[in-house]
From TrEMBL:
GO terms for biological process: cellulose catabolic process. Residues 1-34 form the signal peptide. GO terms for molecular function: hydrolase activity, hydrolyzing O-glycosyl compounds; polysaccharide binding. The active site is at 120. Residues 645-749 form the CBM2 domain. SMART domains: CBD_II, FN3. Coiled coil: none annotated. The lineage of its organism: Bacteria, Bacillati, Actinomycetota, Actinomycetes, Kitasatosporales. Keywords: Carbohydrate metabolism, Cellulose degradation, Disulfide bond, Glycosidase, Hydrolase, Polysaccharide degradation, Signal. This is Glucanase.
């Protein structure tokens, strides 16, 4: 280990709330005017700077005083931010304020260093002031002045935590070099090396200051969690960390979910869950083969892989929890139904975005975990790097002198593009420019906070455990419970009921009935109390109750009738059938492939997926009721999946839409629809431009262009379309003169 980092001894994680008023002394604090030695985790035993500018804005909002004392990062996102202005504090002013807040005790200041040349590949909402070739200016006008101020002995006792250049390096992995979502600007930045060299220069200059702790941005699980992205990202970060004179010793850690909305922990499903005999990685469009479902699991894995790739074995991680609480009325209270992978994940996920790539001013989001030191092993802190209430981007065109454009992903009416699965943007309306105060968003974050926000009391006391839990009655399908009320220093807001280890419901009273159970079966229950601050009690006593035997309803439903196949692809069979009847009521259907149950449905249709092409499969369906009675099997139907070559009535159409046009270039989306009666294996779209348009990048397809003639074929994974199904691709192009919409021809095979 280098002398610069000293020995990093990571101890067992003990969560410590971070605030300006809760400061825990170090075991051997240095004299007030002497620089302290670099520590393993800068947040442990230290207070954290509360930015007075953000605090004042938050406190001015109704209810905002409950969180206005939370520490947030100071963003250095342009050269002018270093010195500040008559209306904004500069870097030195913030550091002076931090020294005053610290009052001689250990204290953390959080800075975001964010002004690379060609920043964010010139993304519209977050475009920076420096051009792609302005690396010399980045060094001399941005990094060097910051380093000079941080090295001032007046600030030697502060622990200065820097977040280094969010988004830009991960962009070189996913949006450059021939990837499906590559852009011309990202290709330029990958080719000129200025992201890598700029980050290396920043790490080297800032890392030379003994009380600076550098954390490199590492994206989030919904961006980099796939096998094809994660290790290449770590390799690129190491390349940057060893460029421009830097070494990996200048990297104290990594930060994930910066300014993003990905859930910290998904409580109701894991990446290893299986539904209908298949992994949710394969069957959930939300997961879509990702290795991770939340930021906690992603951060832990990133840390392990980074250490294995040459970074320090005790490298630390930060997680930005400023806007990933996802509380409020729409927060799920348990797992989704197991009728399909999509239903299971979508019904249980607390992250309620339309798509995990949606990033701008997301509707329904809430404040997340409050800033906390060492919440779990390997995680240095939960932090609020993105100050809640600051906009991600304007929802419409707003004239400005900051170089910030209008990104349709910030427009609440935008229906999406191929890069976000043609989903709605999910953005809030009436948003100001990126970084400007957005009162409506702050109010929504307060409303949907999880843990919930209470009126600034700092309540950390959990309610007492519920007592005297008993079963007050059973039927063949239900168990009724009651318990004695808990007490709390502020007030109990409700109770969560657990069947075994699974939360099955909540109640604001001291009674609950669990339904949908199986007759003659023993179930074990506990109850936990909760308060408005999110504190949760210990579990009550456990009680076991056995449902009664069925003494009344012994009549099975009638067998489903008229089972037929309604469609096939090379990998799936869709089925429908006539509804069964029952003397009490049908509760669902079980679908069998041969003798194997492959799924259940509460409707009269089902799609069996993950099959082999050109293969015959035999199906039956059985109905069931609440008493557990099961019908005889339906008629049997044998269905053969389509061949990968595809035969029969094939056809497709292609629809062309320009999503944005800035005069010298444009983005377009093309939707391909199977208009035939059998599944496609592949499709091809051709057209001739009417002018000098040249495609510069294309995603979700493979293209060739000769002059005005363009041909795009599927990307392999999106070639198989069931009858009536759609796929899409998109592209960016340059042009001059006119930009008329071409006539497209689609061919299916």
């Amino acid at each position: 280990m280098s002398a610069q980092l000293l020995a990093r001894l990571r101890t067992a994680a003990v969560a410590v709330a971070l605030s300006a008023t809760a400061i825990l002394p170090l075991a051997a604090a240095a004299p007030a005017q002497a620089a302290t030695a670099k520590v393993d985790n800068p947040y442990v035993g230290a207070g954290v700077y509360v930015n007075p500018e953000w605090s004042a804005l938050a406190a001015a909002e109704p209810g905002g005083s409950a969180v206005s004392n939370q520490p947030t990062a100071v963003w250095l996102d342009r050269i002018a931010a270093i010195n500040g202005s008559s209306t904004s504090m500069g870097l030195r002013a913030h550091l002076n304020a931090a020294v005053a807040q610290a009052a001689g005790k250990p204290y953390v200041v959080q800075l975001v260093v964010y002004d690379l040349p060609g920043r964010d590949c010139a993304a519209l909402a977050s475009n920076g002031e420096l051009g792609p070739t302005d690396l010399p200016r980045y060094k001399s006008e941005f990094i060097d002045p910051i380093a000079a101020i941080l090295a001032d002995p007046a600030y030697a006792n502060l622990r200065i935590v820097t977040t280094i250049e969010i988004d830009s390096l991960p962009n070189l992995i996913t949006n450059a070099g021939g990837t499906a979502t590559a852009t011309a600007n990202c290709d330029v930045m990958k080719a000129n090396g200025n992201y890598v060299n700029g980050v290396g220069y920043a790490l080297n200059k800032l890392g030379a200051i003994s009380n600076v702790y550098n954390y490199i941005d590492a994206g989030h699980h919904g961006w980099l969690g796939w096998d094809s992205n994660l290790q290449p990202t770590i390799d690129l970060l190491k390349t940057a960390a060893t460029s421009s004179g830097s070494t990996v010793a200048n990297v104290h850690g990594f930060i994930v979910n910066t300014a993003n909305y990905s859930a910290l922990k998904e409580p109701y499903f894991t990446i290893d869950d299986v539904v209908g005999g298949q992994s949710i990685r394969a069957t959930s469009k939300w997961v879509d083969w990702n290795r991770y479902v939340d930021e906690q699991s992603y951060a832990v894995a990133f840390r392990q892989k980074a250490a294995a790739s040459g970074f320090d074995s005790n490298i630390g991680m930060l997680i930005d929890t400023s806007r990933n609480g996802w509380g409020g009325a729409n927060r799920p209270t348990g797992p989704g139904p197991t009728t399909s992978g999509d239903a299971y994940v979508n019904g249980g996920r607390i992250d309620r975005r339309f798509q995990a790539g949606n990033w701008c001013n997301q509707s329904g989001a809430g404040l997340g975990e409050r800033p906390t030191a060492a919440p779990t092993a390997g995680i240095d802190a939960y932090v609020w790097v993105k100050p809640p209430g600051e906009s991600d981007g304007a929802s419409k065109v707003i004239a400005n002198d900051q170089g910030k454009g209008f990104d349709r992903m910030c427009d609440p009416t935008y229906t999406g593009n191929a890069r976000n699965g043609n989903q709605m943007s999910g953005a809030l309306p009436d948003a100001p420019l990126a970084g400007a105060w957005f009162s409506a968003q702050f109010q929504e974050l307060l409303k949907n906070a999880y843990p919930p926000v209470t009126g600034g009391t700092g309540d950390t006391v959990a309610p007492s455990a519920p007592s005297a839990l008993v079963s007050t009655g059973t039927t063949s399908a239900s168990v009724s419970l009651s318990w004695a009320a808990s007490t709390d220093n502020v007030g109990v807001t409700g109770y969560d009921i657990y069947r075994g280890a699974t939360k099955v419901g909540s109640s604001t009273s001291t009674t609950f009935t669990d339904t949908g159970l199986t007759a003659s079966t023993a179930y074990s229950y506990t109850v936990k109390a909760k308060d408005a601050a999110g504190n949760v009690s210990a579990a009550s006593n456990s009680v076991t109750a056995t449902t009664t035997a069925v003494t009344g309803d012994t009549v099975a439903p009638t067998a489903p009738s008229a089972l037929v196949s309604t469609g096939t692809t090379s990998a799936s069979v869709s089925l429908s059938w006539g509804a069964s009847t029952d003397n009490v009521g049908v509760t669902g259907y079980d679908i069998y492939r041969g003798a194997t149950k492959v799924g259940s449905s509460t409707s009269t249709s089902y799609t069996d997926s993950g099959l082999t092409a050109s293969t015959a499969y035999s199906y039956t369906v059985k109905a069931k009721d609440a008493a557990g009675n099961v019908s005889a099997a339906s008629n049997s139907v044998t269905v053969t999946t389509a061949s990968t070559g595809g035969t029969g009535n094939l056809g497709c159409t292609a629809t062309y839409t320009v999503s944005s046009d800035w005069g010298a270039g444009f983005n377009a989306d093309v939707t391909v629809k199977n208009t035939g009666t059998t599944a496609t294996s592949h499709w091809k779209v051709t057209w001739n431009f009417g002018g000098n348009q040249q495609i510069t990048n294309l995603w979700n397809g493979n293209k060739t262009q000769t002059g005005a003639a363009v041909s795009v074929t599927d990307a392999g994974y999106n070639g198989a379309l069931a009858a009536g199904a759609t796929a899409g691709f998109g592209f960016g192009a340059s042009y001059s003169g006119s930009n008329s919409v071409p006539t497209l021809t689609c061919t299916a095979s």
